[in-house]
Amino acid sequence: MEDLIASTLSQELKIPHLVARLLVSRGIKNVVDAGRLFCGSDDDILDPMLILGMDHALEWILKVRELHEKVFIFGDYDLDGMSSVTLLTRGLKEVGVESEWRLPNRFGDGYGLSVSAVDEMYSAGARYVITVDTGITANAEIAHAKELGMAVMVIDHHQPSGDGLPICDVLLDPHQDGDTYPNSELCGVGVSYKFICALYAKLGMPTPKKFLDLVALGTLADLVQMTPENRRFTRVGLRTLQHSAWPGVQAMYASLMKDGSSVGGIDVMYKMAPLLNAPGRMERPDPALKLLLCDNKSEAPALLAELKNWNSSRKQKEAEITEMAMEQVRLVYGETVPTVIVVGGEKWHVGVIGIVSAKLAQEFGRPAAVLSIDDGMAHASARAVPGFNWHKALFESRELFDRWGGHANAAGFSLPADKIDELRARLAASAKDQGYTGEAVVTDEAHAYDIEVSLRELAVSPEFASSLPKDDRSRGAVSGELTVLDFFDMMEPFGGNFPYPTFRADNVKVHRVRELRGGHLQMEVSQAGSRSYSAIAFGLRKCKSIVGANRSVSIVFEPTWNYYNGRKSMQLCIKAIE
Fold it and tell me: What is the sign of the dihedral through the CA atoms of 278, 283, 288 and 289?
């Protein structure tokens, strides 16, 4: 039945059968939904006035402008928070509202708004404050700000704590009770953009689409769902990013991307987001925000170089702690890995434990929390797997925590170190209540993929070229060969609940294997009826013994563009070999 549906989509939309099969495997089974995915339109963008509290938000900010007051913008230290601060700073400046920004230091301030941050801003003259990508759970901190006489607007996208909403002047958060906005999956910069769009419309100014590159960065980095509105924002934003109006973003694109190449979701998630998040993980996030806010082309290269140095340090520290965390899982749990993994160590670097928890979750197929223990307190970062909700689990045990926050897939919290064992028991009970058993373990040998394919399907008949947009028909490989990648480019953005396509191919022949520095394998692969493809297997040196002597293997892979010496060709990025 599914193959019949795929055939219908292929014929109606004039797309390759492999692409149609991919759509069906992801639940897209009619021409209307598939067409919307490929094309989209501004019709997917919703009226910002539908967000609860937007009218009050406009009144609030216009009063600030009328009084010629300065706004202090306090954002989170991740890329969603920094892109939010950048967008609000630039957007408010264009309507005559002066601002200053503040970001928390995860080592001294912890997650989100703190009493010390409120006091510092007050001492600096803050009387009007906007918290962005944070604030929905900062009830005590905002109460303190109000006691000092400060007016506070909260722009957030996280779930409320369950202990009531903060008593602020204005609250914009699609997750608050009573908000019927159809797209509750906006990230922080998405809600910020809706606010700026509403403000510009109120003032008779055109929609500021130039900010969509910032929206794309935050949306992809925060892994929110690709709802129709989020997809439209991100798709336009990725194209905007290639020709960004902001010198810092221009410098980043020029450094990380091949000249003239389009930007995809994986480029943001694996190149840009790690770079921009690096200084905040290692010390303070300020250097990354300064790059995003940079208006001087001559200053951007030095700011970018600083970020690259921070990123190198981050990679080294991340590798060290990942090795220790993996070893601890093996020593503590042995062959019986629990439904929720909780590991930690003395003074593990707080800035990288989020990445390490994501690696543990991927390696063991379990939700994982990694703790850094210092002076009797444990500071944690957690990542989920399908079927487990971290926000629900932490809410049920919220009395254990000094601070906590996050959403279903990712969260952070702090608690006394002597409560860790109790937390382990509580998380196991929560997993059981959620119906999560942890039975589906993801390993290199059973790597998740979308569909099984034959390699010959990767090359596409020229008859499908007419279905590509005119400006996309020359974007294929230098050889002129049309491939599925030309159609994947049309399906961008990939991210969140719409990840990059992953395939499995059996009975693949491997030729000319070469081991590269870092434990990577470079090779050529082919299959009966296909041409030979270049392939790279990152970190799979352990598989070298099974790919020699022209043996047949099964591979799980992502087809990606490779740029080399001015040439563009398809390369298979191999995720697993068996």
Answer: positive
- What span, in angstroms and rounded, lies between the C-alpha atoms of 336 and 570? 41
Residue 190: pLDDT band with limits 50, 70, 90 = very high
| Element containing residue 406 per DSSP (H, E) | strand 403-406
Q: Which helix (H) or strand (E) holds 19?
A: helix 17-25
Token representation of residue 493? 């953005």
DSSP SS3 for 469:
coil
Cβ contact 293:248 at 8 Å: yes
User: Are 525 and 510 contacting, i.e. CB atoms less than 8 angstroms apart?
Assistant: yes
Residues in the chain: 578
Helix (H) or strand (E) holding 364: helix 353-364
pLDDT tens-digit series, residues 541-552? 778 777 766 678
Kindly report the backbone phi and psi dihedral angles of residue 229, in degrees, each rounded to the nearest multiple of 5, phi listed first: -70, -45
Q: What is the DSSP letter of 270?
A: I
Task: Tell me the DSSP string of 109-126.
Answer: T-SS--HHHHHHHHHTT-
Question: What would the two tokens of residue 376 be?
Answer: 């009797």
- Contact (CB, 8 A) for 304 and 251: yes
Q: Per-residue pLDDT for 146 more than 90?
A: yes
- On the question of a cis peptide bond just before residue 493, with omega within 30 degrees of 0, the verdict is yes
DSSP 3-state of 340:
coil
**Cβ 208 vs Cβ 196: under 8 Å:** yes
- Cα torsion 356, 358, 359, 360: sign: positive
Looking at residue 493, what is its pLDDT? 92
Q: What is the pLDDT of residue 480?
A: 58
Amino acid at 99: S
User: Does pLDDT of 476 surpass 70?
Assistant: no
Compute the distance between CA of residue 498 and CA of residue 451 in angstroms, rounded to an integer.
14
| Residue 576 DSSP one-character state | E
Residues 157-189: b if buried by 16+ CB within 10 A, e if exposed: bbbbbeeebbebbbbbbbbbeebebebbbbbbb
Residues sharing a CB contact under 8 Å with residue 244, sequence separation 6 or more, in sequence order: 213, 250, 253
Q: Is the pLDDT of residue 461 over 80?
A: yes
Task: Report, as an integer, the average pLDDT of 392-421.
Answer: 91
- Of 185, 250, 261, give the one whose Cα is nearest residue 222: 185
Contact (Cβ atoms closer than 8 angstroms) between residue 409 and residue 357? no
Q: Two tokens at 578? A: 């068996």
CA atoms of 268 and 303, how far apart (whole Å) = 18
User: Six-digit token pair at 394?
Assistant: 């932490």
Backbone φ and ψ for 121, nearest 5 degrees, come out as -65, -40
Q: What are phi and psi of 379, to 5 degrees?
A: -110, 125
